[in-house]
């Protein structure tokens, strides 16, 4: 969301209404609540699947999702919603997590599907998608960032807690953009399956990273990055 001062023509409003009403209108546009964003990477999945529908969670992946769900439930927070990628591995991860958070609504979106957000710098030799993929996926993932990562609406009175279940590339890009780091550096970050990344967006627009890729709640033999 934009800075409140950018939403009002100060000179025009001052001439029409005077300082007192201008201050009131400006205050009406200001965010009052804090948003807590929990970005969850999907659990381990079958890499041999040719189509998305075949890339289902492995038995270990299902265990990881259970552990992530328990961890989120143990935080004792009132989660508002779970927004998840429409890809199979993210959808299945969401279904398992949601069993530990009864009553929390689930929303599927194509915006959070995995992809190539932007050409990494420095480049890497082991991952070189076609250039067109950056244009196709990059615009969509940037749209996801702009659509979901912003300060609270001015009408929101209480702090909110939202879960986003998606993919490593998407999460890494979002973290770089949210912290105003060069987004080309996204591939320097690493995320385990089922990991929790926690962003906080204050009413003034400041963003803080509480945790990045936390899997400390999983036994060592359950941790993977595939």
TrEMBL record:
GO cellular component term, pick one: mitochondrial outer membrane
GO biological process assignments: positive regulation of mitochondrial fission; programmed cell death
What keywords sit in the KW lines? Hydrolase, Membrane, Mitochondrion, Mitochondrion outer membrane, Necrosis
Instruction: Name the protein family.
Output: Belongs to the phosphoglycerate mutase family. BPG-dependent PGAM subfamily.
**Pfam family of the protein (one):** His_Phos_1
Give the Gene Ontology MF terms in alphabetical order: protein serine/threonine phosphatase activity
What superkingdom heads the lineage?
Eukaryota
State which Enzyme Commission number(s) the record gives.
3.1.3.16
Which organism is this entry from?
Answer: Sinosuthora webbiana
Among its keywords, does the record have Transferase?
Answer: no
From the Swiss-Prot or TrEMBL record, state where the protein is found: Mitochondrion outer membrane
SUPFAM superfamilies (alphabetical): Phosphoglycerate mutase-like (SSF53254)
- Point out the gene that encodes the protein: Pgam5
Q: Where are the transmembrane segments?
A: none
Protein name as it appears in the record: Serine/threonine-protein phosphatase PGAM5, mitochondrial
Reaction(s) catalysed (UniProt annotation): O-phospho-L-seryl-[protein] + H2O = L-seryl-[protein] + phosphate; O-phospho-L-threonyl-[protein] + H2O = L-threonyl-[protein] + phosphate
């Amino acid at each position: 969301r934009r800075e409140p001062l950018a939403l009002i023509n100060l000179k025009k409003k001052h001439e029409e209404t005077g300082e007192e009403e201008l201050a009131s209108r400006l205050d009406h546009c200001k965010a009052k609540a804090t948003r807590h964003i929990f970005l969850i990477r999907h659990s381990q999945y079958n890499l041999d699947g040719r189509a998305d529908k075949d890339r289902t969670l492995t038995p270990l992946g299902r265990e990881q999702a259970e552990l992530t769900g328990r961890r989120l439930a143990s935080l004792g927070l009132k989660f508002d919603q779970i927004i998840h990628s429409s890809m199979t591995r993210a959808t299945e991860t969401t279904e398992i997590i949601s069993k530990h958070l009864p009553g929390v609504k689930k929303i599927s979106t194509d915006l959070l599907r995995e992809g190539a957000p932007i050409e990494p710098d420095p480049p890497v030799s082991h991952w070189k998608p076609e250039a067109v993929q950056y244009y196709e996926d990059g615009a969509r993932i940037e749209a996801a960032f702009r659509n979901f990562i912003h300060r609270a609406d001015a009408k929101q009175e209480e702090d909110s807690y939202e879960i986003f279940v998606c993919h490593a590339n998407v999460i890494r890009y979002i973290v770089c953009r949210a912290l105003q780091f060069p987004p080309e550096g996204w591939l320097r970050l690493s995320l385990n399956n089922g990991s929790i990344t926690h962003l906080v967006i204050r009413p003034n627009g400041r963003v803080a990273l509480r945790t990045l890729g936390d899997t400390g709640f999983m036994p060592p033999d359950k941790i993977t990055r595939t």
